[in-house]
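Pilot study result, target chain (253 residues):
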Amino acid sequence: MNQYFCKITSNRFITKNTFILECECPDLVNIIKPGQFCNIKVSDNLVPLLRRPFSISDVQNKNISFMISLHGKGTEILASKKEGEYLDILGPLGNGFDYTSNDFSKAIIIAGGIGIAPFPYLIKKLKVLNISFECYLGFRNNTEIINEGITKYSVATDDGSFGVNGNIIDLLKKELVYNSGYKLFACGPTPMLKAVQKFAADNNYNCEISTESAMACGFGICQGCPIESTHQDDHFMLVCKDGPVFNSRDVKL
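Predicted structure:
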């Protein structure tokens, strides 16, 4: 983990409530793994006091980008940042996706809402390695659909306004052709991850999930983001340090 001061190169909305913040950071791009995150200092003022964690969404040339959903004062401040301003970033933090092993035949990417954020960079890496993949995306309605950096995808919406009428599990049951050699990579709200966790267990899929938590420090000092392990009674890991990506068999959601 290192501290970087990165120049903002663009800041643009892709939906009404979702924006992509891109900044130049040549020293950071070479050490990022898909699924890792950064802690961003939102303001020089005391409000908000704590840094905010955001998944690294993509890497291109010297630039990294964050896909961010408007949610509270911190993200409102970031949405107002202008090209040429600088961000104070700590990163890369946490453990990312294990996509380089040769123990799966296809990557199945599963995202709910802003949970799509870490996947453009993962897809880019899968393409470099010639690893086959499919994407399954879930949103509340057609106005919230995000497909930035995503290819080979199917969509479900809760209200049926686009794609399959239902949730992400309905979409998987309808369109995913079963193969136990596939590996699932999922990110989204905790209820969705719980459902994917059960779906993977019921169908004998290897599955990694990118979890969410409020993180104060981002690297394990404050102990503020515990997640329960399945391996030992009363044993907890930390989302920021041991995750945010875990094998779905290893944690209780």
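One observation from the pilot: Residues 135 and 153 are 4 Å apart (CA to CA). A full batch analysis is planned for the follow-on phase.
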